[in-house]
Write a structure and sequence with these properties.
The chain is α+β, with helices and mostly antiparallel strands and about 150 residues long. The chain is about 45% helix and about 20% strand. It has a 4-stranded mixed sheet with strand order 2-1-4-3.
């Protein structure tokens, strides 16, 4: 019996610990490095994107790309002044179709940026939407700052 006890202490327990460590390392490797299964998912996603791009091409290509010109016209209603500037297209609009872009512009109109609010932002209109050019018009009503002082005579 003593012989079995010595064998089990020095041989069986270390082999069990080695096997448990090996199984734990396999499970942890799958948990920390899930990229082994990732290429299959990526291939499926790229195939779906290619199909989506083919569908967009069939629709006439009405999707914003990085080559789309983004023109912002500003109209000040107080003094009827107009400015037009071409800006780089914001990254969040790339890949949007007309409906998605219009909903994004509606949400922008409800919560404009702080710079636009300081300028007196009133409304926003999408004048033109195509794959080549997107033109929006922002309407402002600026508040004139008083630069002259009235002096009592």
């Amino acid at each position: 019996m003593r012989l079995w006890k010595k064998i089990s202490i020095f041989l069986i327990y270390p082999l069990l610990m080695l096997a448990a460590g090996f199984l734990a390392s396999i499970k942890l490797q799958d948990f920390f490095y899930p990229s082994r299964e990732q290429p299959q998912i990526v291939q499926e996603e790229t195939a779906a994107q290619e199909q989506g791009s083919l569908e967009a091409a069939e629709l006439g290509g009405l999707i914003i790309t990085c080559d789309t010109r983004f023109v912002v016209k500003s109209l000040d209603l107080a003094d009827s002044s107009r400015t037009e500037e071409e800006l780089p297209i914001p990254e969040q609009y790339i890949g949007m179709d007309r409906e998605a872009f219009l909903s994004a512009m509606d949400s922008y109109e409800t919560a404009p940026s702080l710079n636009d609010l300081n300028k007196g932002f009133l409304s926003l209109d999408v004048q033109r939407f195509s794959a080549d050019e997107v033109v929006i018009q922002k309407n402002y009503e600026s508040k004139k700052k008083c630069t002259e002082f009235l002096h009592p005579v």
